[in-house]
Design brief:
There is one protein chain. The protein is α/β, with parallel strands linked by helices and 504 residues long. It has two domains: 382 residues, 3-Layer(aba) Sandwich (Alkaline Phosphatase, subunit A), CATH 3.40.720; 80 residues, Arylsulfatase, C-terminal domain (2-Layer Sandwich), CATH 3.30.1120.10. Helix content is 26%, strand content 15%. It has twelve helices and 16 strands. The strands form three sheets. The protein has a ten-stranded mixed sheet, sandwiched between helices. Helix 5 packs parallel to helix 7.
């Protein structure tokens, strides 16, 4: 009898392990300020990205994918909570200390009532980890990643701290992990004198430390299903890549140094340094892919790569550099799209997106299905066979990813952004509606663009699209909830003013 019970127990354990081994893992990689045209598979000609190009060749590349917002924190909020900017709790970049002076690090936190996709995965028995840059609430706040569904957090909790690639510490859950003593600041102009990159290099390069943590996490999982969120910090400025990465690129790219006049740190070879950040990002993705292959997990792991918003915007008038010394014009970072980070034009929102799952996502395909960050929660839930909660704003991209082709959207895509003057955008079919300067005394008029035929948003069709504008205003009235922390004066756009969504 004892032997029989032992055998039955072993069979139960083996069956449980078999079920776990059959479950889908998810690795979601998020770049920081990476433009739509900054990868080789999206037309980049100066910066080699072989690992991401290989990922695209092995999976599917989307050409009409959009971030959740044109800046960091709200884009992450849309991604994690599945709610577009009309209903997201976080709609702008705001330090937690503005409302919560007890916190010296971190951004305004999502509330304890917020529900994230990580909580869905953990409830389903997944091990969950976030390794990289968080930005949705300080350690100890309601937005602490450990309180938002992640078993492990390792990296920068605070976006402002992530301006330096050689910070004093990273966080492992609620514990500071010392990294550099002394630390290197992320901001310091140098109007005169010789600019030397070595002056801004510390002991421990945070991206290398974080990707090593990701490799260790993958190795430790065995047959347990996992959800791994990797919000890497490249190529967000400051320009602080390792010297050997910079030296890969031509010296004649940089006729003049960047002196920090547009913020962040100076660099003697700013274009080469920016290219090095993207090349290093690509190498880190390659290490993650190699770790999956080494553990024989590649065939049952959905890998998604995208960016939180477009490339860095211009600096002060007359400067040849964008913020932090970046030069998106030189690299054609938006591939002809209008606008940059901070803008709801295409260049601020349209981002690269690649997904791979051998045997399920056809290899080498390109999809023009429109989608955005609010779609990822329902997409990942369907891919993993998990229940999709009610109240999400997105639509599953899984049919398009698995080769079914784009389906007509039943819900519009929209952005309600209080910063950079106050902006809204609504995408309806082939058209996109934009209004600027809503938080100023002189709000701009509606603009309408046919994105399919005019992706550069060069021809404003508003004068001939009164009915479409009325439809866009109706969408905003229906979809946008009040948010006193991040207000947008929609009463100046629509009548009546938008209010909370009843029953949702």
């Amino acid at each position: 009898m004892v032997r029989l019970l032992l055998c039955l127990g072993l069979l139960v354990v083996a069956a449980a392990r078999g079920r776990a081994a059959d479950r889908l893992n998810v690795v979601f990689i998020l770049a920081d300020d990476l433009g739509w045209g900054e990868l080789g598979c999206y037309g980049q000609r100066k910066i080699p990205t072989p690992h991401l190009d290989r990922l695209a060749a092995q999976g599917m590349r989307f050409t009409r994918h959009y971030s959740g917002a044109p800046v960091c924190a709200p884009s992450r909020c849309v991604l994690m909570t599945g709610r577009h900017l009309g209903r997201a709790e976080i709609r702008g970049n705001r330090q937690a200390s503005v409302a919560f002076p007890e916190f010296r690090e971190g951004q305004h936190p999502v509330s304890g009532a917020a529900v994230t996709m990580a909580q869905m995965f953990r409830k389903a028995g997944y091990t969950t980890a976030a390794i990289g840059k968080w930005g949705l609430g300080p350690v100890g706040s309601s937005g602490d990643p450990n309180r938002q569904g992640f078993d492990l957090f390792f990296g920068y909790n605070c976006q402002a701290a992530a301006h330096s690639y050689f910070p004093p510490h990273l966080w492992r859950n609620d514990r500071k992990v010392p990294l550099n003593a002394p630390a290197i600041p992320g901001h310091r102009p140098q109007p005169e004198g010789a600019v030397r990159a070595d002056d801004w290099i510390g002991q421990a390069y945070a991206p290398s430390v974080m990707v090593a943590e990701a490799e260790a996490f993958i190795r430790a999982q065995g047959d347990r299903p996992f959800f791994l969120f990797l919000p890497f910090i490249e190529p967000h400025v400051a320009l602080q890549p390792p010297k050997e990465s910079v030296e890969r690129f031509p010296a004649d790219w940089d006729p003049q140094p960047y002196r920090g006049e547009n913020g962040y740190l100076p660099h003697p070879r700013p274009r080469a340094a920016y290219a090095a950040l993207i090349a290093d990002l690509d190498a880190h993705v390659g290490r993650v892919l190699a770790a999956l292959e080494a553990q024989r997990l590649a065939d049952r792991t959905l890998v998604v790569f995208t960016s939180d918003n477009g490339p860095t915007h211009p600096g002060r008038p007359g400067s040849g550099f964008h913020v932090g010394g970046a030069d998106p014009v030189f690299f054609e970072s938006t591939a002809g799209l209008r606008g940059y980070k901070g803008s709801v034009y295409e260049g601020g929102l349209r981002v690269p997106m690649i997904a791979r799952l051998p045997g399920r996502i056809p290899a080498g395909r390109v999809s023009n299905a429109p989608g955005y960050f609010a779609d990822w929660w329902p997409t990942l839930a369907e891919a993993a066979g998990l229940e999709v909660p009610s109240g999400l704003d997105g639509e599953s991209l899984w049919p398009a990813l698995t080769g079914g082709g784009p389906s007509p959207r039943t819900r519009p895509m929209l952005w309600v952004f209080p910063e950079y003057g106050g902006q809204v955008a609504v995408r309806l079919g082939a058209f996109k509606l934009v209004r600027q300067r809503l938080a100023t005394p002189d709000p701009g008029p509606w603009e309408v663009y046919d994105i399919e035929s005019d992706p550069g948003e060069t021809i404003d069709l508003a004068a001939k699209q009164a009915a479409l504008i009325a439809e866009g205003e109706a969408v905003l009235r229906r979809e946008v909830a009040d948010n006193p922390v991040f207000p947008v004066p929609l009463s100046r756009v629509t009548a009546p003013a938008a209010g909370p969504l009843p029953g949702r």
